[in-house]
Structure formats: structure tokens, C-alpha cells
Amino acid sequence: MMASSFRDCKAWSAGGLPLSTSSNEACKLYDAILTQFVKWRNDETLGGFEGCISALQQADPNFVMGHVISTGLELVSTTSSTRLNERLASAVRRTVELASSQDISPREKLHVKAMELFSRGNFPKACDVWEDILVDHPTDMLALKFAHDAYFYMGTQTQMRDSVARVLPHWKPHMPLFSYLKGLYSFGLLETRLYDQAEKVAMEGLALTPDDAWAVHSVAHVYEMKAEVDKGLKFMESREKDWQISDVLASHNYWHWALYFIEKGQYEAALQIYDSQVFRRCKATGSMLDTVDACSMLCRLEMEGVCVKDRWRELLQVTQPHNDDHVTLFNDMHFLMASLGAKESGTSQRLLEGLQELAKEPGDNQQHQLAGTIGVPMCQAIMEYDQGNYNRTVELLYPLRYRVVDIGGSDAQRDIFNQLLIHATMKSENKHHQKLGRCLLVERDAMRPSSPLTERLMQRALALHN
């Protein structure tokens, strides 16, 4: 039986979020899954996500919201495409059928609709539906979290911030998961460049819940964006004990730690984190967040001139099974880095062609709609850079630089494309490109005045073009 701390039928109703099931056990398991989702943690005492999901299906196999949360979690993890994965596609259909055969609440119906829209890649419409739920039910954490994730995949930073701002006044300190709103809100503030406020709000969250890994992650971003490297290193180290128990986010937090080392030019320390944490975890879990982080890190190190040896080949084993998924453009570009790094030109070509194909008839899949105008040219730019065609890289990437945000991810994650463009301009034979590179470095320096990485790149540009 589930611990008494989780909400039963009566508790959910009292909170204004009744669930259509008569099973108290199912209600508690739903709460247990939601709690792990918000904490980014497989709680072994509960049997983790998988244990709770299978127990939930046994407690009430026809519980619609049970299907919404379990199938929804698999969808937002972006590890699998309903285009290719028949089991996942049928789980979505099953949820829709259950919902239409039962007398469930309007809120639950909307949850089913949003999940179905998301499964078809219609992220904007799915978010509209989650926001509709939140207008009437501002304390529906599942709607809030799913919307937060989808906004992240679309790179819609203001929406991600405002979605949380709108519901904040309705939450009271006694409500379950209250403190975690601080980290969610902080992340939206940070992605809209409100760094001081973001840090303050995250610290308020950490004062309430020191092991909130998402709030830690938000602070890590602030120090990254301001290039306050030593502050970042100190902060991550001092709180490692707290955040590393959140196994779903731990690798990503280690990645942030490693970025500080790359920024400082301490490549061995960064590689050590890559080997002991980032790659080890991504190989064990197959998590997309961990996988794209691994790709990004090796690519950044290579741009800095570090030899990463056979690490690309090992990483390709993790990315290759997802080459045809095309769930998000952000994932695709990182898989491409891995296949290029491993010198698998066939795999790289196939990824690009698959994307070109989907761009022809995208339907209402938001990522495929962007594939033609942003996804394909960015992939081509990465390939041209890999082949040493730096002129062409700049021609492809420079016109897109203010649209890169549309591929999703965070400013910190997308910075790899800023770096790629700068490296391409410096290596280009074209004098105009070389000048452009210096302009980009001046601009970068204005935003992050104390960045050792920018300083190194400036020195290199001077040495190359004098």
C-alpha cells in the first residue's frame, strides 16, 4: 500500500482536483508519480516511476488520468516517436478510447486532448489546452509541468515564464509540492534574461527544499549566463549531496558543472565529469536530456581543440537507435554531432534525408513544420563545418542566428550554435566572415563581460588574422 502522505480520492477532491476513480490506491499512486516527476527523481522506496506506473495499472486499469500521466511522461521524455513506436501510439489511442467511454470531468477530458495533441507533435495546441486547464484549475501541477516541458521544446521562453507567474498566487505554502514552483518560475525568469530575479526566486525555493534539483539547476544557469565561473563551481560542489539524489536531473547538473571547467579551459576536469557522470548515466538510462548533453559536451571540447578519442563511437551506440525518431529538432542536431564525430557519414546523411522528407508534409507537427526553414539548414551547417567548409557554414548559420531559439532547449544549451558560428567565421577564408567573427565576439563580451572562453576566442582571432 502507498504511504499515507500521498493524496487519496477524498484529498484530491478537497483540493478541487477530483479524479475519476474509486480506488484510493490509484489516486495515491498518481500522486506518487506526479511527485517524482516534479522532483526529477526515481524514488526507490516507492519502486520508482516504473514500479508506480505498473502498480497504478493494477489498482485501476481504466483510470483515465493514470493513463494520461504514464503515457504523457513517455511522450515528454522524447525518447520515442508515435510514428515509429506502435506500442506508444496504441497507448495514446487506448487513453482516448477510455476517456470517451467514461463519464469523466471536463478537466480530465482536456488532459486527454492535450496529451493526444502533443503525441502528434502539435506542441502549441497542446499548450493551449494545458493553459485552459490552468485558468480553471491553477493548482493542477500536471498541466503546469507538461506545459513547462512543451514550452521548453519550442523555445518559447516568455510563455514558459508567464505560465507559472499566472498560477503562483493560487498556491499556498501548505499545498503539496508548493516549494517546487519556485524552481519552475526561476527557470522562466532566467530564460527571459532576468538573472537577478531568477537567482533570488531559486534561492527561496532552496531555502524551503534544499534538495530541489531543478532550483539548483536554475542557479547553475544564472552563473553560466553571467560567466560567473568560480561562483558556479563553488555552488555546484557545495550542494552536490543535495542534488545528486535527483537521478533524472543529476547528469544534466553535472553537465553544467563541466561547462564551467570548459569555460576555464580546464579540459581534463571536464572530461573526467563526462566519463564518470554524463556518459555513464546516459548509457545506463538512455535519457534524451543526458544524451544530448553528452553530444554537446564532446562537440564543445572538440571546438576547443581537445582530442576526445573514441568517445564519439561509444556515444553513437546510444544515439543511433533514435536517428529516425525526429521528435524534436534539438535532439536531431545533437544526434548528428554524434554520427559526424564517429565518422559515420551514412548515418549522418540518413538523418538529414529523413528530416527533409518529413519537412515536405509536416501536417500539424510543429517540429516538422520548422524542419525545412531551420532544422535542415542547421543540420547542413553542422555537416559543412565537419567537412571543413567554413564559408558555407557561415552562410547557412548566420542568417538563422536569431531563429535558433525555435529549436527549443535553453540559452545555455543553444550556445553551442553561437560557438559553432564564431569558430566557422574565424576559420573561414572570407575576410568579411573574419570581421563578422570579431563583431560576434564583441557582442558576446558585452553580454558576459568576464568570460574566459570569449577572451580565448578573441586572442585566437587576433593571432589568426593579423
UniProtKB/TrEMBL annotation:
Keyword presence, Repeat: yes
Residues spanning the membrane: none
Keyword Protein transport included in the entry's annotation: no
Keyword line: Repeat, TPR repeat
Entries under Gene3D superfamilies matching the protein: Tetratricopeptide repeat domain
PANTHER family noted in UniProt: TETRATRICOPEPTIDE REPEAT PROTEIN 38 (PTHR16263:SF4)
Family, as annotated: Belongs to the TTC38 family.
Protein name, entry field: Tetratricopeptide repeat protein 38
Source organism (scientific name): Perca flavescens (American yellow perch)
